[in-house]
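LAB NOTEBOOK - FOLDING QUEUE
OPERATOR: T.R.
BATCH SIZE: 2
PURPOSE: Compare the predicted structure-token outputs for two unrelated chains run back to back under identical settings.
PRIORITY: normal
REVIEWER: second-year student, initials M.K.

ITEM 1
FIELD SEQUENCE / FIELD STRUCTURE:
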Amino acid sequence: MLYIFDKDGTLVHNIDGERPANTLDEQKPFDDVLPKCQALIAKGHYLAVASNQGGVAFGFMTAAQAHIMVKHIADYIGATTYAVCVTHPNGRKKAAKRESRFRKPQGGMIEYLMDAFGVLPTETVYIGDMDTDREAAEAAGVKFMWADEFFGRK
């Protein structure tokens, strides 16, 4: 089974409960993430991360910084790979101001990761904390779980 995780609000805390982290110093994993992910790996499951990083399109970070942050949390949980979308249709940076089939709520990142692992939608679960995560899972035809439910958070 392939478990794909959203990053912000799912694997790492949002700043003040709202804003996603824009630096590695701000990026703090939830305490329940590592034990749950280690247990999945021990059972032979694959892990990946799929994250919108629209902060690039607004100039809060570079694409390279966004990749570093997502790779950092992917490595932390033992994920084999990750996918990042740096575009946003309302962004301020011309090169990233556009819609993309990889930007959630589209299913492109999830489909890309399924292809990377050679798994079917029936063998994939996407875990997230926002309606766009749920919609991306639906668009890719995979099962969705809310992060609070998956990790047993209150």
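ITEM 2
FIELD SEQUENCE / FIELD STRUCTURE:
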Amino acid sequence: MSDPDADQFYKLADSFINLANEHYQKEGDGKVGYAMLYAAARFNAFIVATTAGDKTELAAETAPATDYFTEQYRKMFSENLEDYHSNFEQYI
């Protein structure tokens, strides 16, 4: 990811995080975390479905897409947990 793309990516991610933080103040972490997971899953399923040419292609893409998004989530989650571990006193 080039720097302008990275900047745009992180600004977009931060906009979702800021909204989640607003909801967190009212709802608590459990509801917001699960809602964000559901929203990400729902949106990414929409992306996979809308890029498939038809139902047969969607069926063929289901397992690879599931593997891809699961791997990406695991990687991003691990990287963020490591960041919190390394910067615990600063962040918490």
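REVIEWER COMMENT (ITEM 2): Residues 40 and 46 are 10 Å apart (CA to CA).
FOLLOW-UP: none requested
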